[in-house]
């Protein structure tokens, strides 16, 4: 059982709990983006089990009235074992998602996984059309070229600041202000070049405002993505005029996820915890 406070960030340990939570989001007009927690599997049995659960998730999420999506990590699907294992499992998930009209997002992990992740995305977007999307991290120097590589494909693009993984300065911006500038530039390139299939994944109000201005300038729309448990009031407010998706993690590996949320961004975690334990205090 997931204890109080932690259950603000995680939907539960079992798929049925995540699906119940996803239905509540669906009724509120927020797109559930469901993730089974786990990464860096080093045995085939764990890879098969998680891949099978994602396919079952696609079946169940298809019963919602609104849109739904799943989000998977490459190393969860066997990238550490072999690229062919990863690609085979991912393709089966994307195929099931297309059949069930459930979108599949491919997360981006450590910098050593970027190339294999992008290669798989390009190939599957060509084969399955617009049923797949991938994350681009603005902190990596290579992201400008990676964006150009993906801009004319059918893959959707989830744009994040980055900084979730340790980076050497030789490959990434490590200063927060410089990372913010890189993110603004990435957003500007995306709205100018793509015009659609853009997800702005941030809790930063200034960056959301910037994306809104860009959308008005280029006469297009975009999706806003946020984590479960962070700025829930703002998510509901934004959903009145934008497509908003919430990342909904679940699974028995929740402790590591919750600890990482606190370690990587103490401010966000503290605000979310405050909203949980202080009567009348709403996270916004």
UniProtKB/TrEMBL annotation:
Which UniProt keyword terms apply here?
Oxidoreductase
Tell me the InterPro entries matching this sequence: FAD-linked_oxidoreductase-like (IPR029041), Proline_DH_dom (IPR002872), Proline_oxidase (IPR015659)
Task: Report if keyword Acyltransferase is assigned.
Answer: no
Origin superkingdom: Archaea
Spans traversing the lipid bilayer: none
GO terms assigned for molecular function: proline dehydrogenase activity
Boundaries of each Proline dehydrogenase domain copy?
Answer: 19-252
Database matches in SUPFAM superfamilies: FAD-linked oxidoreductase
One of the GO BP terms on file: L-proline catabolic process
User: What is this protein's record name?
Assistant: Proline dehydrogenase
């Amino acid at each position: 059982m997931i204890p109080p406070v932690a259950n603000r960030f995680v939907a539960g340990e079992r798929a049925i709990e995540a699906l119940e939570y996803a239905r509540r989001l669906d009724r509120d007009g927020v797109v559930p983006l469901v993730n089974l927690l786990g990464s860096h599997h080093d045995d085939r049995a764990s890879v098969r089990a998680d891949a099978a659960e994602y396919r079952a998730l696609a079946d169940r999420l298809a019963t919602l009235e609104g849109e739904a999506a799943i989000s998977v990590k490459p190393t969860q699907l066997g990238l550490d074992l072999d690229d062919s294992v990863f690609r085979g499992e991912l393709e089966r998930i994307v195929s099931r998602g297309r059949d069930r009209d459930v979108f599949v997002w491919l997360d981006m992990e450590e910098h050593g996984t970027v190339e294999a992740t992008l290669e798989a995305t390009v190939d599957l977007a060509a084969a399955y059309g617009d049923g797949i999307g991938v994350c681009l991290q603005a902190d990596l120097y290579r992201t400008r070229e990676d964006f150009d590589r993906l801009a004319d494909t059918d893959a959707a693009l989830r744009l994040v600041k980055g900084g979730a993984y340790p980076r050497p300065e030789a490959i990434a911006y490590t200063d927060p202000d410089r990372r913010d500038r890189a993110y603004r530039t990435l957003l500007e390139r995306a709205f100018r070049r793509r015009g659609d299939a853009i997800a702005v994944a941030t809790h930063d109000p200034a960056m959301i405002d910037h994306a809104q201005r860009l959308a008005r300038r280029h006469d297009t729309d975009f999706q806003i993505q946020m984590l479960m448990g962070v700025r829930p009031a703002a998510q509901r407010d934004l959903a009145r005029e934008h497509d908003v998706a919430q990342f909904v993690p679940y699974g028995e590996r929740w402790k590591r996820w919750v600890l990482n949320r606190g370690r990587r961004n103490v401010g966000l975690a503290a605000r979310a915890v405050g909203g949980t334990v202080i009567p009348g205090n709403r996270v916004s």
